[in-house]
Amino acid sequence: MIIVNTDFITGKELETLGMVKGSVIQAKHVGKDIMSGLKGLVGGELTAYSEMMNEARAKATKRMVEEAQTMGADGVINVRYTSAAVMQGAAEILVYGTAVRFR
């Protein structure tokens, strides 16, 4: 499966199948949330949140790819990510794009 953020795949003629998406809402353990709050006072990277967002992006992308595969897609173009805070310490990641089949 080819995943790109452009509206084309070089050297391929594409047939559009439709929009696909994947999403996840993920939270960190409350203990890590407290430690990150303390880290926020002194500055620096909040690694627990970086890890949480990386895990969430990977899960959301996997779900999008699975949806594209059920449509018989060879790739997903115009891929975009968005995030939103759902509550303290939790975030939603949404990834979406256009499923395509090679001609």
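The above is record 1. Record 2 follows with the same two-line structure.
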Amino acid sequence: MSISSHHSAERAPHIGTLPAGALGTIADVEGVSVGHCTLAEGALQTGVTVIRPHRGDPFVDKVPAAASVINGFGKSVGLVQLDELGTLETPIALTNTFGVAALAQAQIRAAIRANPRIGREWSTVNPLVFECNDGYLNDIQALAVTEQHFNEAFDAASSDVASGAVGAGRGMSCFDLKGGIGTASRVVSAAGRDYIVGALVLANFGRLPMLTIDGTPLGRVLAERAAAANASSDKPEQGSIIMIVATDAPLDGRQLKRLSLRAAAGLARTGSVYGHGSGDIALAFSTAYTVPHGADFVALPPLVADHCLDPLFRACADSVEQAIVDALWSAESVTGRDGHRRLSLRDSVPDLAQLLRNSAR
């Protein structure tokens, strides 16, 4: 079942002072596209999200990438080779914890269809799948995610990026509210040129009293209200967040590793302490150049010097923080397995915008 983009008529507050790109999503980075396949029927509240780094074949034309594991309570596939070689050679797939194996196989099959020499004359392919546990709302034991859902999300990829309770975000919870997919972008000047940094998150972490939006400790206020009476500040933080950061700035794998780590700054600003049971992983990739498969030499453009990276670091933190807020702001309330229900932020707090304005004074 497909779910369209859900955006509130009143936009979320803009985080920081850096301007957003034209779309305000990760697709502001030229060539990047996102597709969702959403399963939303009864106890099945889950899905798949696919991020394509460019319009071509990422196995033939790989992109430089790197990841940072902020807290490793996660079941991802593909991080070891990514860390070793510093390139991304499949689309990035997001889903629930028990869907990882199915999507890894789907990525392998898709790569072989496009390049029949994989695993024979050529090397094997490194699938890349990230996950969060949506088992509160979704019957995760049903193992509902299949290869077909990956293919549908891949085929749906476009620059029109839906956020909220869509795709892999359908069953996710965030700060005891409805979480899901969020996205944002920032435009920044580094080394005398303008670049885009975009982020997409799969947000499934946090306890309500910890929630902070643009510096406002909103969660503490909400926890005092009757609607949040069942939230307890002594419960451990658990869940996960996957943070995907894209940029058109020319960076190598080492620099992208540094950029990915700054996603943690944006995550922390929202109130996360990277709890024991949370899988917090960030990946950054650049679209400024590709690494041709099998090439003996790789031509690199002039790279941004390390001493000029600070504006990109700032843009990464701001865009990740904004993307988390977008996930909360855009989500709809969802009822799933065994009648479990997560209210959206906006359904929980009808006077949200006014509350934020008052708290900021």
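The chain has a mean pLDDT of 93.
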